[in-house]
Write a structure and sequence with these properties.
With 366 residues, the protein is an alpha+beta fold. Helix content is 27%, strand content 36%. The chain is built from ten helices and 21 strands. Belongs to the spermidine/spermine synthase family.
Length: 366
């Protein structure tokens, strides 16, 4: 049962808004008449600020309302909100708002305006995901495929006609069936030969990396995933990603261990066990945190342990956001690792992410 919001902005020459009191009153009245053409009454409240700006509120008996804000510096905004029954159509339509936009442009002599699509608030199926750079993306989700709370997180799989089934953990986007580019990037983009190699996957509950590796005849793949419910959901609802690799959690050349990776890595370190490749596909993005005590101890610990179980000729892959100086901060961390490492950064467009994603190949310096 959503409320629809529509936002209109008009860039105006400040001189248009700085006329005499009579001229300003005429301009406000003309704008009010345009708002009323949407079937709204008012203003039921109007305020004039010390800088000469104004604010007015309109409404109708159906519960729709609009706010008109005039900034004397040269900006006029109109925000319209209306209630729309789930599956219904808005009474104030896109067409009527296009007409209002043109009328405002004439009244204000505005040469530049912006009308955003309806923002849908309170929908049963929330279409919005926020990217790591705080940008809002509206998806075409048409149904909830699966949703449950595990002991560790909320697990949600939504269907998108464009991207297929998409996995979210605690409402953070993980992977969609369209995102093979992610799996390829996390395994070296075709540059590596996994035949007869020992591989360790940290996380990877969607099964994409495990399935991809098993097609290349590795010696053995060990996967450490803490959440059995993610595996179960992927097995049933993310077949386009994991295919049949979770139908059994063990095979001749692979084993899925459902447990926390840190104690296992510590045990591997004590036992002297090493791998040709370590792939960090944990849900908590390991390179996206500020280097603070609270947020970075665990990712740093996992990185240190992973390098300890990596063979001298081995490679380690990880990933994270490519925004807000995150890669630069992570690379600064890498420069201070002992023993020293070299690395390769690749920036890849993942279809359902709507933002570029950074992938790192890390190896011990010779």
């Amino acid at each position: 049962m959503p409320a629809y919001n529509l936002l209109l902005d008009f860039q105006v020459a400040p001189t248009i808004l700085e006329t005499s009191e009579n001229g300003k009153a005429t301009s406000n009245q003309e704008m009010h008449n345009v708002v009323r053409s949407l079937g709204l009454q008012g203003p039921v409240s109007a305020v004039t600020f010390q800088d000469g700006g104004t604010f007015a509120v309109f409404h109708n008996e159906g519960g729709s309302h609009a706010t008109l804000r005039v900034y004397p510096q040269g900006l006029v905004t109109l925000d319209v909100q209306q209630w729309v029954e789930e599956g219904g159509e808005p009474k104030i339509t896109e067409e009527s708002l296009k007409d209002v936009e043109q009328k405002f442009r004439r009244v204000l002599s505005s040469k530049k305006s912006k009308r955003l699509p309806f923002i849908k608030r309170g929908m049963r199926l929330d279409p919005y995901i926020t990217t790591t750079s705080e940008q809002i993306v509206e998806y075409d989700f048409d149904r909830v495929v699966y949703e449950e709370n595990s002991p560790y997180q909320n697990i949600k799989i939504l269907h998108s006609p464009q991207y297929g089934n998409l996995l979210l953990l605690d409402d953070d986007q993980n992977l969609a069936e369209s995102d093979a580019a992610y799996t390829y990037a996390m395994t070296g983009n075709g540059r590596e030969d996994f035949m007869n190699k020992d591989v360790l996957i940290l996380g990877g509950g969607d099964g994409g990396i495990l399935y991809h590796l098993l097609q290349q005849n590795p010696k053995f793949v060990t996967m450490l995933e803490i959440d059995q419910m993610v595996i179960d959901a992927a097995t049933k609802y993310l077949r386009g990603i994991c295919h049949d690799c979770f139908d059994s959690l063990s095979g001749d050349n692979y084993l899925v261990r459902v447990e926390d990776c840190v104690p296992v890595l510590e045990q591997y370190t004590q036992d002297g066990k090493t791998f040709d490749y370590v792939i960090n596909d944990l849900t908590d993005i390991p390179i996206s945190q500020e280097p603070t005590e609270d947020t970075c101890d665990l990712p740093q610990k996992i990185l240190d342990l992973s390098l300890k179980v990596l063979k001298k000729t081995g490679k380690y892959w990880t990933h994270g956001a490519n925004t807000n100086n995150v890669p630069q901060k992570f690379e600064e961390q890498l420069k201070h690792l002992l023993p020293p490492v070299d690395f390769l950064k690749e920036v890849i467009a993942i279809p359902s992410y709507h933002e570029l994603w950074a992938f790192y190949t890390i190896w011990k310096a010779s």
